[in-house]
């Protein structure tokens, strides 16, 4: 069941009933009908909708940022930046999509050859909780510009964000049915992918779930775009400015409380400066302010769920058991929330 839980306190906010099959049926049928008209709309007439969504985002930025922080726990300053990044992305495609989508003549042995980008249809977006607004709009802006419709299946721990996104796009003036949210269990994704009304699927999530979605989409010969996990290296050479490098490493490692595919995860350091670099990283990490993510001064909030905290703690214990040195922390923080 989709449920909203405050990671900073561990207290439930609200439970949401999954949408029943008849609602899913209505959403998919409405999306197909709306996309049929939308694809016939000239590109130049589609783009004002993107600008309107960006305006709605900025007009209610504080409420949306607080909603993100309340449901998944990232510091409010980062949540506010996510809203602005989403609006900027919408503005970018509003200003450039007409050029991106323009037919492109190409040289060939034929009398005339042109690359034409046509809409796919209704797209299923399976989106993650770590950037509940940005990841959706990163997908939606180019999808709408290109004449597609969208059905959002968001992560089950951010249902309020998912419903707010649907309402936001509707309020900005999107044609009824063109962009909708479905509150469903993860197991229902396979049926959505199989449905003839879904033309393609995009997923941002774990490698394991990506493999499942790729197999399901492939079984139905449907296009799919996957953004999966990462293990990004952070390389420090002997001639680096170590203080600057340590500052960047800490910022990169702990953005979104370390819950991002683009966080620095493997710090590779020239052994000649490794000791000094480790000391600086420990010092700067220890100076980060942990606390209520709604507090403007907070830099480290809770992890998004209790199971994520437990998994991280298990990783720390196993790493220390394998011979690693523990320089800072190492245990869950006593008290409420998933710190």
TrEMBL record:
InterPro entries with a match to the protein in the record: Ald_DH/histidinol_DH (IPR016161), Ald_DH_C (IPR016163), Ald_DH_N (IPR016162), Aldehyde_DH_dom (IPR015590), GABD/Sad-like (IPR047110)
Any GO molecular function: succinate-semialdehyde dehydrogenase (NAD+) activity
Region (Disordered): 1-21
SUPFAM superfamilies the record matches: ALDH-like
Coiled coil (residue ranges): none
Pfam families xref list: Aldedh
Matching Gene3D superfamilies: Aldehyde Dehydrogenase, Chain A, domain 1 (3.40.605.10), Aldehyde Dehydrogenase, Chain A, domain 2 (3.40.309.10)
UniProt key word DNA damage: no
Keyword Oxidoreductase among record annotations: yes
Annotated ranges, domain Aldehyde dehydrogenase: 4-338
Alphabetized UniProt keyword annotations: NADP, Oxidoreductase
Signal peptide from the UniProt entry: none
UniProt family annotation: Belongs to the aldehyde dehydrogenase family.
Protein name: Aldehyde dehydrogenase family protein
Native source species: Nonomuraea terrae
Lineage of producing organism: Bacteria, Bacillati, Actinomycetota, Actinomycetes, Streptosporangiales
């Amino acid at each position: 069941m989709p449920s909203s839980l405050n990671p900073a306190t561990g207290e439930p906010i609200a439970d949401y009933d999954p949408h029943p099959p008849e609602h899913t049926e209505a959403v998919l049928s409405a999306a197909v009908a709306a996309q049929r008209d939308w694809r016939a709309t000239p590109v130049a007439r589609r783009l004002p909708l993107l600008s309107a969504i960006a305006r709605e985002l900025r007009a209610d930025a504080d409420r949306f940022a607080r909603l993100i922080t309340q449901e998944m726990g990232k510091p409010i300053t980062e949540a506010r930046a996510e809203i602005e990044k989403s609006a900027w992305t919408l503005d970018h495609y509003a200003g450039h999509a007409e050029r991106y989508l323009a037919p492109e003549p190409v040289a060939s042995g034929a009398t005339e050859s042109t690359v034409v980008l046509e809409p796919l249809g209704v797209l299923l977006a399976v989106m993650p909780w770590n950037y509940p607004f940005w990841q959706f709009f990163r997908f939606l802006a180019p999808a709408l510009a290109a004449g597609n419709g969208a059905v959002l299946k968001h992560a089950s721990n951010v249902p309020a964000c998912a419903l707010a996104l649907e309402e936001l796009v509707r309020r900005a003036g999107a044609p009824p049915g063109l962009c909708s949210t479905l509150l469903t269990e993860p197991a229902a994704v396979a049926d959505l992918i199989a449905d003839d009304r879904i033309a393609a699927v995009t997923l941002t999530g774990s490698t394991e779930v990506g493999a499942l979605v790729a197999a399901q989409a492939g079984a139905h010969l449907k296009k799919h775009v996957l953004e999966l996990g990462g293990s990004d290296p952070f390389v420090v050479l002997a001639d680096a400015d170590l203080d600057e490098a340590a500052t960047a490493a800490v910022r990169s490692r702990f953005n979104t409380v370390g819950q991002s595919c683009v966080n620095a995860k493997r710090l590779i350091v020239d052994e000649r400066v490794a000791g000094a670099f480790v000391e600086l990283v420990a010092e700067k990490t220890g100076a980060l302010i942990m606390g209520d993510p709604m507090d403007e001064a907070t830099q480290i909030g809770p992890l998004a769920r209790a199971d994520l905290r437990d998994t991280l703690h298990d990783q720390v214990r196993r790493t220390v058991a394998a011979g690693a040195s523990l320089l800072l922390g190492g245990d869950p923080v006593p008290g409420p929330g998933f710190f």
